[in-house]
């Protein structure tokens, strides 16, 4: 089975002995890919919360799919946390479009090591 994939490579400068290439896919099996924005506020723990925002990785349009996501929280109480995961499957709307639900826990960070919970929905 062959799947047509279109996109481009982006060369990321690194040290002379190590560098990387990022692959940006623009079409998967002839269908355009898309992303979603996401944002929210973490749970309130150890006397504070954090804001976060980002854009998911691309996924194919018109078929059932999920998206990977990655970002850092705002810098509050002298630290920040990493957020990463995979959204749930697409939830299609009767009027067209779709969104994804996501949830998880942040990395453990801070002067008093701790983590926060987060959950939300992506943009349409």
UniProtKB/TrEMBL annotation:
<protein>
    <submittedName>
        <fullName>YmaF family protein</fullName>
    </submittedName>
</protein>
<dbReference type="Pfam" id="PF12788">
    <property type="entry name" value="YmaF"/>
</dbReference>
<dbReference type="InterPro" id="IPR024307">
    <property type="entry name" value="YmaF"/>
</dbReference>
<feature type="compositionally biased region" description="Basic residues">
    <location>
        <begin position="113"/>
        <end position="124"/>
    </location>
</feature>
<feature type="region of interest" description="Disordered">
    <location>
        <begin position="104"/>
        <end position="124"/>
    </location>
</feature>
């Amino acid at each position: 089975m062959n799947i047509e994939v279109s996109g481009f490579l982006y060369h990321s400068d690194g040290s002379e002995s190590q560098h990387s290439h990022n692959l940006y896919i623009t079409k998967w099996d002839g269908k355009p890919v898309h992303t979603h924005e996401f944002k929210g506020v973490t749970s309130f723990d150890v006397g504070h919360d954090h804001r976060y925002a980002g854009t998911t990785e691309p996924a194919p349009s018109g078929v059932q799919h999920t998206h990977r996501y990655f970002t850092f929280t705002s810098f509050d109480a002298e630290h920040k946390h990493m957020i990463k995961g995979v959204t749930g499957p697409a939830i299609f709307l009767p009027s067209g479009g779709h969104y994804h639900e996501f949830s998880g826990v942040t990395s453990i960070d801070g002067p008093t090591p701790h983590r926060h919970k987060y959950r939300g929905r992506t943009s349409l």
